[in-house]
Amino acid sequence: MAAVRNIQLRCSSDYNPRGTTLSLGWTGEELRRHHAAGLRCGDDHDVSNRRTTGILRVSLGAMTNLEYIDSLTKFIEEFYVEKVPPVVPLGLLALLL
Question: Which residues pair with 48 in a beta bridge?
Fold first, then answer.
């Protein structure tokens, strides 16, 4: 999907176990369990026990412009942000408070 929009992505565990652990909210035990199961940076295991195993890291450089950032942001919002409607409509919620 990204390539069609001329966006190059690489997802992994950021080559930084501690950073990934903090970003994904894993416990130390979960990190050890993933490692023991063979999870490694750059492998094709995207989900384990219904939880994501990697993060998306964006690198910006001297040639990065606002158009590119806007394009990337729109792409992420369209394909990766899960939008769930509120359980209670906001108007009704205001009446209840």
Answer: 51
pLDDT in tens, 50-67: 777 777 778 888 999 999
- What is the Cα gyration radius of the chain? 18
Say if residues 36 and 8 touch (Cβ distance below 8 Å). no
Rounded distance between C-alpha atoms, residue 15 and residue 39, angstroms: 12
For the chain, which residues make up each domain, given as ranges? 3-79
SS3 call for 12: strand
Q: What is the DSSP string of 37-96?
A: TT--TTSS--EETTEE--B------TT--HHHHHHHHHHHHHHT------SS-HHHHHHH
In this structure, what token pair is assigned to residue 57? Answer: 């890291």
Residues 52 and 88: their CA atoms lie apart, in Å, by: 28
